[in-house]
Amino acid sequence: MNLSAVRPPIAFAAKNARFVSNFPQGSDELWMADLKACRHDVQCEVFEDILFVESNGTAFIYGIEFEDGCPKGLKPELALKQQSFIQFLRDETRRDNDALGLAALIFTGHEYSTEGKATAAYIAARNTSLVMGVGYRNNDGKYELIGIDPEEDSWLESARSILPFDELCHPG
Predict the structure, then answer these.
(1) Nearest-CA neighbor of 46 among 54, 55, 37?
(2) What domain of life does the native source organism fall in (predicted)?
């Protein structure tokens, strides 16, 4: 474990979750929310108008289903915003795993921990029960999409225990 690189755990809070529209084909819905990412006294970032998809009882960050994180069919500036947010999440997960070294392997979901925390924060803000969808590169190097019941793996409980969005931290 690289103790000099260890940072406080990242926490997410979401607010202002709102329905945007239905997708043209099927019953999938597009939602939007504001998210705040905070590492106590180290980092605080606000991401406004992040898009989520709700499909067949699963919620996921729009674009996470693609390895490059770029959602298809959006205006380029919106697609880039989503892709940048997803890259931020993946970078934070990588930094945490690099800091923990082999110890990261003892944590369930270490491959997508930040992505999971952000998605769980959205589900908590919606005050609903949805499966959490994440996409990540597994240990074999293959891009994988999975659904996680956040109630079973305590993701939702953790998300609900975080301070509310406006109290979590203040951007510096």
Answers:
(1) 37
(2) Bacteria
C-alpha dihedral, 72 to 60 to 58 to 96, nearest 10° = 140
β pairing state of 29-39 and 58-61:
unpaired
**Per-residue pLDDT tens over the stretch 137-170:** 888 889 999 999 877 778 888 898 888 888 888 6
| 52-89: b (≥16 Cβ within 10 Å) or e | bbbbeebbbbbbbbbeebbbeebeeeebebbbebbebb
Answer for the pair 115, 61: CB distance below 8 angstroms, yes or no: yes
- Chain-centre distance for alpha carbon 85: 9
Q: Which of these, 166, 164, 169, lies nearest to 121 by C-alpha position?
A: 164
- Alpha carbons 74 and 86: distance in angstroms, whole number: 15
Joined tokens for residue 34: 């504001």
Compute and round to an integer the Cα radius of gyration of the chain: 15
Residue reference for tokens 């908590």: 124
pLDDT in tens, 46-92: 999 999 999 999 999 999 999 999 998 899 999 999 999 999 999 99
Q: Are 10 and 22 in contact (CB under 8 A)?
A: no
